[in-house]
Amino acid sequence: MITMNDLTTISKTLFVPMQGRIYSSEKYPNIFYDKEVLKLKNKLPELNSNQSEYTFMASAVRSMNIDRYIKEFFTSNPEGIIFELGCGLETTYYRCDTGKNKWYALDLPEVINYRKELLPPAQRQLLISESIFNYEWVDKYSEELNNNPILFIASGLFHYFEDQAIIELLNQLQKFNNAEIVFDTINKWGMKGIKKYMKELGHDEATMYFYVDNASELTRRIGNGAKLLKEEKYYNQTPKNNFQFMTKISMIISDLLFMVKMIHIKLS
């Protein structure tokens, strides 16, 4: 049985987005509902509940946004493949599965082992125990998947790594012949907020580095034909009517300053 003590500093943060998905599913199912995560609620360790409605919903909205991009991808690419980077305990597959598409989900070995206990691999879903920065998996699967259209998704992941490491990763993903990526990120103002938030949750040891002020500049740095498809305000499509006053204000300010955003890039 894998316990919390078996997880690294960064890996322990995988419970934070689960709390948000549970909160929204119970309080605001009209905005975001996750049947699978509710099944797991009583199987999770005791978690830090020192969150506001805003921070709970920030996690849920990220999943809502990722789901939207996946469904748009499948509309344009009926035979497309989803490749989750840093999959953690995400339940994206169960919300977006079409019944025919292949899914790959990659994370550190201790996370995949823990995931297998809670979420055994589903049909057409392959779990990969590997660091995103050990590029042997890139060489293996870029050759195996050849020209298949692929959407890489990185949910709440890139913040924890140095800028140059993320650029190198995106360069490596260009070895796939027909690949896109969608991920959430923050600007320099958002970085200040998220560091404060993680400290309140007791995860201040999980240092954060990566942020994006300008997605066009990021795409230019990736180079090799990378093309920016969309840079979108995080709460742009989130109904706000029923939230607490401070939640609504925080979402409005975040979008006004582009503090949190979704970025969609055609890599190859």
Structural class by sheet pairing and helices: alpha/beta
The order of strands across the largest sheet is 3-2-1-4-5-7-6
SS strand fraction: 15-25%
- Straight-line N-to-C gap: 41 Å
Number of strands: 7
Mean pLDDT: 90
SSE series: HHHEHEHEHEHEHHEHE
Q: What global shape is seen?
A: globular
User: Main sheet, how many strands, which sense, barrel?
Assistant: 7 strands, mixed
What kind of assembly state do the chains in view correspond to? single chain
Radius of gyration: 18 Å
**DSSP summary: helix tally:** 10
Q: Secondary structure elements and their pairing?
A:
Layout: H1 15-27, H2 35-40, H3 53-76, E1 81-85, H4 92-96, E2 103-107, H5 109-118, E3 125-129, H6 136-145, E4 150-154, H7 163-173, E5 179-186, H8 188-200, H9 215-222, E6 227-233, H10 245-256, E7 260-266
Parallel strand pairs: 1-2, 1-4, 2-3, 4-5
Antiparallel strand pairs: 5-7, 6-7
